[in-house]
Amino acid sequence: xxxxxxxxxxxxxxxxxxxxxxxxxxxxxxxxxxxxxxxxxxxxxxxxxxxxxxxxxxxxxxxxxxxxxxxxxxxxxxxxxxxxxxxxxxxxxxxxxxxxxxxxxxxxxxxxxxxxxxxxxxxxxxxxxxxxxxxxxxxxxxxxxxxxxxxxxxxxxxxxxxxxxxxxxxxxxxxxxxxxxxxxxxxxxxxxxxxxxxxxxxxxxxxxxxxxxxxxxxxxxxxxxxxxxxxxxxxxxxxxxxxxxxxxxxxxxxxxxxxxxxxxxxx
Length: 267
What we know:
The chain is α+β, with helices and mostly antiparallel strands. It has helices spanning about 25-35, 60-70, 85-100, 100-110, 125-135, 195, 210-220, 240-245, 260-265; strands at about 5-10, 55-60, 75-85, 115-120, 155-160, 165, 165-170, 175-185, 230, 250-255.
């Protein structure tokens, strides 16, 4: 299936039986379509399901930011400056990108504070290793000041070392994929939304109450938005309706008749 638009690297939530990773591609495509992006933004048949990284094509940086802030399964989304099957290949493409896009990269490299960080999937980098990985990318011609605590722009060197039979490969293996990119937005998780709707803080729950993470995933895949009408025929303790209310639904429909659940519906 053909996808079009600007190319972005999406780092998605990964790991653990409660991560709901099976929904990450469907949520991304649904939210992107909802905000007006050309759908689909990823081709699910041609992605590596064993990696938290996925390339997505979205119409603009502004639209990609909107997608990230709505998605539960996105950690962050990035503008790719260079990528390849090795650090050297990614660095070579990054140099070309900087040379060919001087007007775009100027403020990031010369006018605003920045920091470069390293993140590996399938490999934990020591401080010394991180410095070795990022050092070549610091030679791209930066004149802006480094601010490690609160930078205006965060750049990442992502490496994918893969995994084998559910276990990470041994440390020291070379990565099969490398990206150098600028973070443009964090995902919904960083906004502190999910803890506010946690079952631990809900005044009324039942034995089958849906956790906040799954409820928001359902709302996103249903493309719930401001003004939506949500019909939940078996409302239970209203987890889906509570999550949907965050996005501005104006009416909730249900046929639940047990009066004990009314407090949850009225949250």
